Description:
The complex is a heterodimer of chains A (191) and B (112). Chain A is an alpha+beta fold and 191 residues long. Chain A has helices at 2-19, 22-28, 39-42, 55-63, 70-80, 100-109, 165-169, 185-190, and strands spanning 47-54, 82-91, 115-123, 128-137, 140-150, 153-161. Chain B is an all-alpha fold and 112 residues long. Chain B starts with a helix and ends with a helix. Chains A and B meet through strand 1, helix 4, helix 5, strand 2 and strand 3 of A and helix 3 of B.
Amino acid sequence: MNTSVRLLSAALLTGWLAFAPTGFAAAVTPGSLQLPNFDGIASKAVQTVDISLDTSLLGMAAGFMDSSKPDDAAVKEIIAGLKGVYVRSYTFNSDFQYPETDIDSVRKQLSAPGWQRLVAVHNSPDHSNVDIYICMVQGRASGLAIIASHPREFTIVNIVGSVDLQKLHQLQGKFGIPQMQLPDNKAAQNK
Amino acid sequence: MSNELNDRLRAALRPVDPGESFTQGVLARIASEPSRETVSPHRAVRMRGLRWLSGALLAVVATGFLVAHQWRAQHAQQGQEARRQVLEALRLTSEKLDLAYRVVKDKERSGA
């Protein structure tokens, strides 16, 4: 009887550790951010993108990529090193419908050790801002964060895991990914 | 001689009524012997149990197939949705990276 109870407890504990603490894991995983609840903003937005993909969902998505197709194989390679992808993007009909406090709460998390700001773009004429941060742990990139705001739009992207921007660059023009003007490493090396 | 034999045979083979007691004896014997066709109560219970068990097994197998089919359909739907979300996330990420790059380049050009 005692053995059965112990075995059952061990099984439950193992199950909890394996599946339950996704929020807990997100809080302690380097490179991950605690995104605020944007439900209030979502009701005002005309277009909403709310994506939360943890390791298991990324694995599931990878399972539905056809490795024999080069484009799918490239995406599969990109997401292989990722632990999570979280995107919140809202588009509005009128200017500044979103509270800056929510964005500031995310910015505060990016001042924590490990996070480095790669790019801070503030374009006065059209009030568009883009901040790109990278989380470095022991010399390796373990997370990427993008905060892009425009009077009628704001987007927060948090990619957890090793992000290879060069591989992402190779996907331009495929799956609706825009043609990027980012310099190609090979082209830059040849110059 | 042949006539005498003939008569004796006729006499010996003539129909004779066995009598009421013989009929009753036969009927009593039949009633006392257990019928070979009759199934014992234990066997009847066992057969009914087997019928229930096979029905239940069939229902379990059919339910299993149905659940497995639904799980596969749901799994495929979730996988396709996850794939769509990955591509949407990559699209948005690329778009914002490109926006930052373009603004930086524009500033460089205007500064130069």
